[in-house]
Amino acid sequence: MIVPPRAVLCVLNATLVACLAGASVAQAQTGSQPGVPTTSTEGEVLSLEAALSQGGAASPSIAASTAGVQAVTAARTIAGLRPNPEVQLQVENLAGSGQYRGFRSAESSVGIALPLELGGKRSARLALANARLTRAEIQTAIAVADLRLRITQLYVEAAAAERRTEVLSEQSAIAANALRIASERVRAGAASPIEQQRADVLRINAQVAADSAGRQAQAARLNLAALIGRPITGLLDRAWFDQVASFYGPAQPVDVEETLAFAAATADVRAADAQVRLARASRIPNITISAGARRLAETNDTAAVVGVSVPIPIFNNGRAFVSQSQAEQTQAQALRSLVALDTRQDIARAQTEVANAAATARATGGPGLAAAAEAARIARIGYSQGKFDQIALLDAERTLSQTRQAYVDALAAYHDAVARLQRLTTPATLANGEARQ
């Protein structure tokens, strides 16, 4: 029995529509978002908060900042120490001539010398050490905020890479089905060999893109696992990744003086102020007082010896140090003003990026994705009825795949913008630095 070519064509068209519809049904049963498929990887879901809580224990940056605080704390202890006393031993009339030959007329003195700091040098050193300790504590908070931003960005990157892999894998499956149908159409004489070659090229490109996306997803998971210090065997939090704020109105004003960047700049200014105070105190010379006893060789009597020594500031009177400290103070104040200006601009820019990314994600995942899915559905029906050719069908499927990828990109851009805004507006928590004396 000979089957007419038209009947073969109808069977092939029905088979293609069934394959494409089956992929869409499977996607609708497994995906939480329209047009974005999900995988069925088993394992415990790793949430972003869990990743953030685990990242601090294995981070070298946190360890480095903590060691910095310990070092500055030790330096503060050193700054509060007073000068050590000195034990003095002096022998006179020794190894001379005549009656002073040898040790016969030697006179010895034993005493203790104690340097006395004047001008408030110790309190100035403590003030400088306190300011530097506060700066080190703020640096630790900055390290924590930077680590949270980095973990969040890697988490977003890994989640987005997995979504892209799923979209491209589905596109590869559609291209493979299209090649199979095209090959059967060519064998039945219902299409030219060019249609088969075109479908084969599209299948190869789709498979390469899917494989590349799979490797990128694996690399992103490995990078995230290395940062949090534990392997990732389960899924990432898809509900969090799909969540976008429903509305972003006018940007809310942010107090720049409460941010970490401004707090760090303020700590630098306070350290510079303390340095100026120490430089001025250093201009006042210290004195050294000494007291002891002397044995007189001729009478073998003992007498007290008291002394006071005061340096003469001829060559170094401390003016250069004061000038240097004042210039650094001016520089720190100017840098704080610059930080306030830059931070205010960065926050405003980040708020705009968050609002734009949210709007793009809502539009792409809503009307845009719905329109692309409807166009693909119509193309499938029209192709099955002989109203559309293969190029129209493949173009509709490609548009749907690209829209799905654009939606994933929009979600990733939104979460990245939110993470950067949260980093910029992280409040500073001073560890009672102002209360130290």
Topology:
Layout: H1 5-30, H2 48-55, H3 60-79, E1 86-92, E2 107-116, H4 121-187, H5 193-228, H6 238-242, H7 260-282, E3 287-295, E4 302-309, H8 319-384, H9 390-424
Antiparallel strand pairs: 1-2, 2-3, 3-4
Taken as a percent bin, the fraction of beta residues is 5-15%
Give, in order, the helices and strands. HHHEEHHHHEEHH
Overall mean confidence score, pLDDT: 81
Distance between the termini: 104 Å
Q: Which outline best applies?
A: elongated
* Largest sheet data: 4 strands, antiparallel
The tally of helices reads 9
Low-confidence stretches: 1-42, 430-437
Helix percent reads: 55-70%
Number of DSSP strands? Answer: 4
Radius of gyration: 39 Å
User: How does the helix and strand content classify structurally?
Assistant: alpha+beta
Strand order, sheet with most strands: 1-2-3-4
Provide an overview of this structure.
- The chain has helices at residues 5-30, 48-55, 60-79, 121-187, 193-228, 238-242, 260-282, 319-384, 390-424, and strands spanning 86-92, 107-116, 287-295, 302-309.
- With 437 residues, the chain is α+β, with helices and mostly antiparallel strands.
- Strands 1-2-3-4 form a four-stranded antiparallel beta sheet, with no helix packed on it.
- Helix 3 runs antiparallel to helix 4.
- The model is unreliable at 1-42 and 430-437 (pLDDT under 50).
